[in-house]
Structures are given as C-alpha cells and as structure tokens.
Write a structure and sequence with these properties.
This protein has helices at 2-31, 99-108, 133-139, 169-179, 182-190, 199-204; strands at residues 55-65, 70-74, 110-111, 115-126, 149-157, 162-165, 225-226. The protein has 227 residues and is an alpha+beta fold.
C-alpha cells in the first residue's frame, strides 16, 4: 500500500508540475514577459514556431568615415563571440535591434577617423540552400546557386541618431506582394478606409530600391584598429 501511495503522489506531482509549466508558458506568452530568459523557454512558450522563416539572415554593420571611406565594424577586430555553436552573436538578433549598440561598443574601443554614418545591413537567402551538397543533389535537379539579398535596415548618424528606419526583409517582401496584387488593391478600394500603424516606415521602405552608397566603392578599406 505504501508503494501505491508513492505512485499516486508522483502522479499528482507530475500533473501539477506539467500544468504549472504550461501555465507559466501561457502567462509568459500572453504578457510578453520573460519569453527569452533561458533557452528552455523555447519548449514552454506557445509560439515556438510562429516566427519560423524560410529565409536565413545575417547581420552586418558598415560605417562611413568623414573622409568618405567605408569600414566593416562587425565582427570586431578582437574576434567574434559565439554564444551557441559556430554562429556569431550578432546573427542571433533577427530584428537587428542590438547591432547598433554592439557597433558603438566597437567604435568606443578602436582608433578610427570621425564617423559620419552607421549602416546596419540585413542579408537573406532561402534556407533550402543550407542543405549539404549530397542532400541537395538528391532532392533537386537544378544546380545549387543561392541568391543572397541585402538591404539597409537602419542608418544612424555618427552620434547614434536614427536617420532611416526600414522593415526587415520578410516584411518588405510582404508589402511588395500586397502592393502588386490587383485583387488586393481592388479590395482596398471597395472596403472602408483604415489607419495603419507605422505608415511612415512603410513609405521609407521605398528607399530599399535605391543603391546603397558603398556599392559604387571598389572595396571596403577594412576594420578599425583596436587599441
């Protein structure tokens, strides 16, 4: 009988523990609190796959000196920080929210000319091109020729003042699809007017179609030197 009571207590504890973890995940997801405090939250928060994308992205920061020369700031001259696996820390920022602060830290601890502008870039390509060559050859008939897309995410002044704010790659593509679909345009004209949040940023997305200023440069000069 003692073994039966022990099993019953273990069963109750398992149920209570499971419901507690599930409840914490619901509260965390609903209140947007602590959703990224630990990697194990990936298994608790309900939206673990909502942000799954078919594109891989990488982040890059380039600064323009007052002389007109361009320098690559990230990765820093003293080496990369790889938190998990072999991917650099800056690439774990899918919305490029912290690239500016990381680049400012590099500029703070390096010798360089006065900085005029700071460009935060996003590079994207289809994840299917991440397949190893043997798996690619077994799955696809066409040659493996990945197409990489780069655009300006943010532009800051040398003092960190925002000069240009653009949506990420997927949001930009979604806006292009919405704008070039005749059926959706007809629905917009027939339905009631509505107010969108961040419409000024949508207008600035047209700047993506302009060439980046460093594309006419023959090559990057290099990274600032650490002191």
């Amino acid at each position: 009988q003692g073994g039966y009571r022990m099993k019953r207590w273990l069963t109750h504890l398992t149920i209570v523990g499971y419901l507690s973890v599930l409840g914490w995940g619901i509260v965390s997801h609903s209140m947007k609190f602590g959703t990224h405090i630990h990697p194990t939250m990936y298994f608790v928060v309900w939206d673990m796959f909502c942000g799954w994308s078919s594109y891989s992205t990488r982040n890059q920061v380039i600064v323009e000196g007052e002389s007109g020369k361009f320098y690559e700031v990230l990765p820093p001259p003293w080496g990369n920080m790889q938190t998990f696996g072999d991917l650099d820390r800056r690439h774990y920022d899918p919305y490029q929210s912290f690239c500016m602060s990381m680049s400012q830290n590099v500029l703070k601890h390096t010798d360089h000319e006065p900085i005029a502008r700071i460009f935060v870039l996003e590079e994207a390509w289809a994840k299917k091109y991440n397949l190893p060559d043997p798996l690619w050859d077994a799955r696809y008939e066409e040659p493996k020729d990945p197409h990489r897309y780069r655009h300006v995410r943010f532009v800051f002044s040398g003092d960190g003042i925002p000069l240009q704010l653009n949506d990420n790659w997927l949001s930009y593509q979604n806006q292009l699809i919405m704008g070039e679909n005749p059926r959706l345009q007809a629905d917009f004209r027939k339905t009631r007017p509505f107010i969108t949040v961040g419409s000024s940023e949508m207008e600035q997305d047209m700047l993506f179609q302009q060439s980046a200023p460093w594309q006419n440069q023959p090559h990057l000069i290099g990274s600032p030197s650490a002191h």
